[in-house]
Design goal:
By secondary structure, the protein is of the alpha/beta class. It has a single domain, classed as Rossmann fold, CATH 3.40.50. Helix content is 39%, strand content 14%. The strands form two sheets. It has a six-stranded mixed sheet with strand order 4-3-2-5-6-7. Helix 3 runs antiparallel to helix 6, helix 5 runs antiparallel to helix 6 and helix 8 packs antiparallel against helix 9. The longest helix is centred in the N-terminal third of the chain and has 12 residues.
Length: 197
């Protein structure tokens, strides 16, 4: 089994782990973690908000393993902000679509023989014509895997903290919603892949 490069297609997994005060779990898997620039900007756009401030600090001091990939959409949205204009609400999603559909984006990672894992929150994510080296992993599946290898004592405990925020600075509106409970999704690449440490 080959280890994966981890790609986060949107802000969901990081937001979920922040709600549970468990961002450091991303570091325990000892993998390269790729974010597109517009998703990074979405996660860190309001530094007066505790989540954005803590996530920015976490990513910035842990780069690597975090890698911020530039996209045309992300660059254009940053220019808008510098000019004092409001960015698009869905810039992160648009940038990720651009990244996933581009040979210069995810294509660079998929061209190699190494597997790539996409970490996502929404079980509705569908990949058509799934490449043989693409591994799909939901946040819930990620937590179940960490429990299996003994890096956390209880995936259910972390999931509870995501669903019912109680950590300092977390608000009821920060609660996460998962459609893949109870087991999550951990669909290995056809060529054989593992994200677990």
């Amino acid at each position: 089994m080959k280890r994966c490069t981890l790609i986060l297609p949107d802000a969901g997994p990081i937001n979920s782990l922040w709600v549970a005060d468990r961002l450091q779990l991303l570091l325990q898997i000892e993998m390269k973690i790729v974010l597109v620039d517009a998703v990074y900007d979405e996660l860190t756009s309001d530094l007066s908000y505790l989540k954005d401030s803590e996530v920015k600090t976490f990513i910035d001091i842990n780069s690597p393993p975090f890698i911020i990939e530039a996209t045309d959409i992300g660059t254009a949205e940053r220019e808008k902000r510098r000019a004092g204009n409001k960015p698009k609400r869905n810039a992160g999603e648009l940038a990720m679509i651009d990244f996933i559909s581009s040979d210069d984006g995810i294509g660079r990672y998929l061209r190699s023989d190494e597997p790539v894992a996409i970490l996502f929150d929404d079980a509705g994510l569908r990949i058509f014509n799934k490449p043989p080296n693409l591994h799909l992993l939901s946040t819930v599946g990620f937590l179940r895997g960490l429990e299996q290898v003994g890096l956390i004592t209880s995936a259910d405990g972390v999931i509870h903290d995501m669903l019912q925020p109680s950590k300092p600075g977390r608000r009821p509106q920060d609660a996460r919603r998962f459609t893949d409970l109870p087991e999550g999704i951990d669909d290995p690449a056809a060529v054989g892949s593992s994200w677990k440490p």
